[in-house]
């Protein structure tokens, strides 16, 4: 509303839609009317907001939820890997078959991490750190069970 009051002294018509845009953006959004409507004494301007703030907030909200969904999926898959590795570590002995199941979980989690990196949800170093952490659990398990072949 303050923007409308500021321009009223200049005898420029500004609709209420321009309120809240900020002075620089509102001034940049002014477009001169067609030549037929411009008189020598004053120019008639119309305000056209270049950005629809409401649409932008909906878009950012959707992107945030999408990113949150991806991160949650990664966290869940990593927890499954860690729980499986801990359970196998607590057993007296484990076979290559059981470690194969763990490798399958790691593969699924790695795929989710790589997708998140490709979409820009995670930074590549964060993704590498998470994948390394899962591999370390598997290597430590193999080492402790005597299944590591050099």
TrEMBL record:
Gene3D superfamilies per the UniProt record, alphabetical: Ribosomal protein S20
Keywords per UniProt: Ribonucleoprotein, Ribosomal protein, RNA-binding, rRNA-binding
ATP-binding found in the keyword field: no
Renumbered residue ranges of the record's region Disordered: 124-150
A single GO BP: translation
GO molecular function (one): structural constituent of ribosome
Compositional bias annotation for Basic residues: 126-136
NCBIfam families in the record: S20 (TIGR00029)
GO cellular component: small ribosomal subunit
Cross-referenced Pfam families: Ribosomal_S20p
InterPro entries reported for this sequence: Ribosomal_bS20 (IPR002583), Ribosomal_bS20_sf (IPR036510)
Stretches assigned to coiled coil: none
Organism: Micromonas pusilla
Similarity comment: Belongs to the bacterial ribosomal protein bS20 family.
Name by which UniProt lists this protein: Ribosomal protein S20
Highest taxon above the source species: Eukaryota
